[in-house]
């Protein structure tokens, strides 16, 4: 069972990596963008204390214009798709973006429902 999960996880990772490689570059989509940092907090449904926090420093010069964050629940196959919301805000030159994403992946034959809050901090030329 563990090998099957690892295999499924590695296939999901490879698929995400391929989508990142195929995506347009962030600098092509938002030419004035100089730097970007995205802070994530993930919560269980109804929870108020984050299960984990993570900060991603985006290397703007070579980053894909794609923002997908896998659910942190090991048994979940879900992903938080943040691309549309983040690109919309970055194209509008917002220096701070806040949002939330609900995981709709499957965990133990049930909907996962973990919730992610994100804050993006951007600087422009």
Folded structure, characterized:
The chain is an alpha+beta fold. It has one domain (2-124). 27% of the residues lie in helices and 36% in strands. It has helices spanning 2-22, 26-29, 83-91, and strands spanning 33-43, 52-58, 68-70, 79-81, 96-102, 106-107, 110-111, 115-124. The strands form 3 sheets. A 4-stranded antiparallel sheet has the order 2-1-8-5, covered by helices on one side. The termini are far apart. The model has no long low-confidence stretch (mean pLDDT 89).
Computed over alpha carbons, the radius of gyration is: 15 Å
Tally the structural domains.
Answer: 1
**How many H/I helical runs?**
3
Strand % is 35-45%
Number of strands: 8
How is the main sheet built? 4 strands, antiparallel
Helical percentage: 25-40%
Specify the structural class: alpha+beta
Arrangement of strands in the largest sheet = 2-1-8-5
Q: Judging from the principal axes of the Cα atoms, what is the shape?
A: globular
| N-to-C order of helices and strands | HHEEEEHEEEE
Overall mean pLDDT stands at 89
Distance between the termini: 50 Å
